[in-house]
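Researcher: We're reviewing a set of sequences before deciding which ones to prioritize for further study. For each one, I'd like a predicted 3D structure that I can look through quickly. This is Argonaute2 AGO2. If possible, include the structure in token form so it fits the rest of the review sheet.
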Amino acid sequence: MSSMEEEFKAMTLGSSLGTAGESGVVLAKRPDKGGTLGRRIELCANLYRIKFRQSASIAHCDVNMVVVRDQPAKPGGGAINRETSIAVWDALVASNPDGLRKQLQSAAFDNRKNAFCLGRLDLPNGVKVFRVSLKPETPDRPPRLFDVKLQIAQVIDLGILDKFCSHQKAANMSDLAATAIMALDVLLRHGMFRRDELVPAAGGRKFLNKLQATPLGEGGQLLAGLFQSIRPTAVGMVLNADTAFSPFLVTGKLLDVANAIVGRMQSSASAGRGGRGGGRGGRGGARGGFGGSGAPSSTAPFNDSELHQLKRKLKGAKVRVTHRVDNRVFMIRGFGQPAGMQVVSIADRSGKKAGKRPSKPTAKEAAELAAKGKALPEREKAPTQTMSVADYFFKTYKRQVDPKLQCVELRGGHFVPIECLELVLGTVIPPTKLTANQAANMINVAAKPPAERRAAINAVRADTDVGPGSAAAAWGLEVDANMMKLVGRVLSPPQAVYSAACAKPRPSVANGPKFLQPGTALQHWAVVVFAPPHQAPPEPRVRDFFRTLTTVAKGKGMRIADDQPKSVVFWDGREDLGSPFKRACNSIIIGNTKNPKGVPPQMIFCLLNDVKQYDEVKRKAAFDLPVAVPTQALMIKKAFKFEGGSLDQYCANVCLKLNAKLGGVNSTIAPADLPGFVSGKTLILGADVTHPTGLGTPAAGSEGQVPPSIAAVVGQVDGAGMQYAAQVREQMGRKEFITDLEDMAVKLIKKYLVGSKGVKPTKVIMFRDGVSEGQFVGVVWEETTALKRAFRAIDPKWSPALTFIVCQKRHHVRFFAANPANKADVDRTGNLPPGLVVDTSVTHPYAFDFYSQAHAGLKGESLPVLRPCTAKPVRYTPLLDEGKHTSDQLQKLVNSLCFSFARATRSVSLVPVAYYADIVAAKARSFVTDDASTTASGATRARARDPRHIQEKLDRVFKGEVALGQTMWFI
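Model: Here's the predicted structure for Argonaute2 AGO2, in token form for your review sheet.
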């Protein structure tokens, strides 16, 4: 079953709800008719009702395409890419007789293995093989030939969808509904794949418009487009339409793009919105910016640092060769030596030809040769000659290339001069590979206030392929022009409890009441300034800043045993980043009269000059010191720009993180606002798995070694659910369920039992982040079984009620006020008020799910000014609920917990325990993976991907008495 089929199957969930699977898990049904708490509010959602002929019959066909003759593919071998599949299908439709052609013209093909035809397809015995011919890539080659086998798998009535959405019972309801949903989804996307201006992404869920490109700078561009998906809801089938944005590498000469990436020049490939005095590529910026300092020549060879950037950004990118008539497209694998030094071996065509292959020896002759220890005769090889790539290209293609510029290594081991390659459109930049400037530029374009977002979505809906003459029109498919209207509820904010047992609504600023519980007294600490000498603040100013910080900390109730750092260490700008860490650590351990036992540092504050230093600084603190030491990173440009009250506010925000890292509790939520959570009797867990990303990363099950994934589980260690510890493991790459969950849960439960003095919880609630619909059933079966094994490992007789809730952030459902002029229905940004809950109309027909928007919609804090964007709700799906919660209980619990995030005073979008797991997994990956290891070759890359090597590094950080795993170091 393909991933697409699994996803549509998961949308129905019908065959699993209320029944025990192979592990004995009973998937949860909605326990009631929805919640009732809160103020009702009229909404509209970016979901559009659809109509279709209920009586229509659809033939689902299996499609199998086989290469008969193609260049360079061999007959019968290799997968057929999407572009070729589309061309073959369209040729199949055009080449058939009128009757069959008419049926196929209204068919929908998913470009892989599935086609859906209106009515019963006229095929003898339900199967037929067609020979299809395509034009050759070059005139001197024969036509490309393919065999296409169509076989009818099943015939379904679209009326099954109305029955499914109204929760009627029928045999095979789930399977039939899933296939029908997939048919409609493929139908809407069929024509979109054939529009020249659109670039498909996300498996065909997104279509980006080439004509709507915005430069991001540094070799990137942002394409705008649309997202669309057919979904079942409690009120019928709907189209989920949304705006979509994806960052791509720019097209053009690879050398120009490479120069833009490393900041060598300002061109169309590198221009972007730079901030005032901004960084590389920005107006007034340094390297390569207008008015910036001098840059290396655009034709100079790339140095090691630049090659490192290029490998990181370009590995896996698609390029077209320009020195051959066929203009074939390849993927970049890496970079080689300069063209004048890179040596290739080629056949010596002027010399002796290869000999004929000897005839195959008989069995008797083979046995005699083996007895004599002789190998079977081989064909005599033709002689070869070696020459540089530069010489080879001049000799073979009459192309003069720069011998000093590095060659590009392509898939298949080919080395090609960089001047002979062009980047083709379609190479997405993964989020982890965006620079800070690119990310900020992307947010500026993509983030829109609700009114603008709503108008843009309606424009996207109008662009869907349902007009006259489309395949959708032949099916009678119509999409409503207006967004769906519904009713939601706004829950009241919870009461926050601070020191002196005072309960009050959660404050909106950080310099409010004192913390509920101070952490360990801060005594052994130091400061490291990671800035070149000419950019570093002087030591007196550094000490003044930390004097203010410790004063504010005392005002918040924190215990400060020493209000000045033991040392302020400066990085010299050239040495390894670990060296100043070691000097700072030694100043605390060696010769310190206040530390006669040589206790390691409690905290090292890191003043960063560049955000790019962050991951490396964290790695050095974890691995280059005798023990892993918690750090608190501060950006110099932020920390030293404030004065007076603004500085106090900034320091108060830092104290939120500092107190949590020292084991303190900033605040808690009043018990009355945590329904279903019984203090001392409820254990909350959060889990997430982060997967390797980036261009060229092999997918699960593909050829090539997939880098390991990182799994993180976070669990509370206090009865109030405000202090947490983490467990981290590496596991097989791209595997979604947590393979070592049992052991991780056992360790976290034992930490909880220490805090509870041995009293076991009667309820366990797991919030699981990062699971797509296609993985719901598999993950819940695997992970709930592992958790129950962990319970029995603690005590064979212990069986707490388990609730397993999946949290989904990556969806495209948005809510808007139906009456934005009503000031009670929107906040000052135009967004819906925090505390919004939606659990009717747009939810699953009968599965237990709801949407929660606990936060306000703001842009990222990296921008100079916070400006509104459209808030994104989180979808929560309780797949297992042995705790038998009502809708109101879970919805209020989730909303209240979102106000307890340790490093914020506002509510956050995701329940904090899942948020923490997401942070831990991402930080753990940065601990064990650096950019060099992901792009290097040979032993370095193999060692970086060796699970034993990764787990050794993780164990050093998270195990032992003095370890980051004992604190909320990740805050």
